[in-house]
Amino acid sequence: MTDENYEEGLKNIEKIHPNASKALMENLKDIAPDLGKFVIEFPYGQIYNRPGLDLKTREIATVAALTAMGNAKQQLKDHIHGALNVGCTREEIVEVIIQMVAYAGFPSAINGIKAAKEVFEELDEDK
């Protein structure tokens, strides 16, 4: 990993999850500060910077994967927020989650929809 990966990762994470890098580093500083650095450098600094997909498409893929996993509710909610931040609509997010019924089953899709509903309600309360 390089400083360039870290700097590029910070740019991407701030577009997708404004202020998240600070919160991530703060939450991990007393137990695993390197983990926060790895998150910024690798997925956001290397994977998200690969050619071929824009940030919106990458976030759609991430929402689909986390929905299918079915065991990462907080990360799913974070990436639903992120998808909205890079241009996804609520309808697109719902459709991506519904698409997972065919590949991950109804329980994962239902849990994903519940996570999306929570995010949408949080956003509506903030208005």
From TrEMBL:
Domain of life: Archaea
Entry GO MF terms: peroxiredoxin activity
All residue ranges annotated as the Carboxymuconolactone decarboxylase-like domain in the record: 33-118
Classification via Gene3D superfamilies: AhpD-like
PANTHER family for the chain: 4-CARBOXYMUCONOLACTONE DECARBOXYLASE FAMILY PROTEIN, GAMMA-CARBOXYMUCONOLACTONE DECARBOXYLASE
Protein name: Putative 13,8 kDa protein in nqo9-nqo10 intergenic region
